[in-house]
Amino acid sequence: MNLRIFSGFGEILLEVALALAPLLLFFFFFQAIFLRLPGAKVLEILKGMALTFVGLALFLQGVQVGFFPAGEALGRALGAMSHPWLLIPIGFVLGFVATFAEPAVRILNLEVEKVSSGYIPSQVMLYTLSLGVAVALALAMTRLLLGIPLAWFIVPGYLAALLLIRFSSRTFTAIAFDSGGVATGPMTVTFIMAIALGAASVLEGRDPLLDGFGMIALVALAPILSVLILGLLYARSEKKGNSR
Hints:
By secondary structure, the protein is an all-alpha fold.
């Protein structure tokens, strides 16, 4: 397959420039009125903005010519296997690996560890979120194979989250709902969703529009539940420690 690596790169550059321009304008506005940072600091920030522009443009171009085609091809190959149920364990492994490598998840975990003064270690959060997304992707593959309606997962899932909130601390509740957004980062959305769409396009009786989408909703829900459960485990261990 012959891929033109920089095909459409001009449009990507324009999109990234339009996305970053308002942030840059806001910065200059507040710099002129409120911040008044020294010139050296402003130059450092502008260098960071330039690196962000280049990084985002190259990443989005890589997604267009690499991640999406590779994910769709892999999904079609998995969906065409003689044992399509293997999509379930493969989805579990891919969900764990993708979340484990997600940059936004790493940043969240480090911030949680820093703000909690080490009470919630980053490694504990990392494995909690990775396992949560892994289970969600296994369920998403099960839904894809069996044609189960998405509402059968989403409605009970959010009802369970609301129930867990009543027994979880406010700290873990806040972290949980932020984790849901962080876990749906570029690794998951670009690669895993492409696999689901590719598999749905070759599985008999499945529609990519109806069955291929919806996975990200499950991925966003899973970290909420997993972190809330982690909060309950923390509360239980604290009660045991206090009772001794």
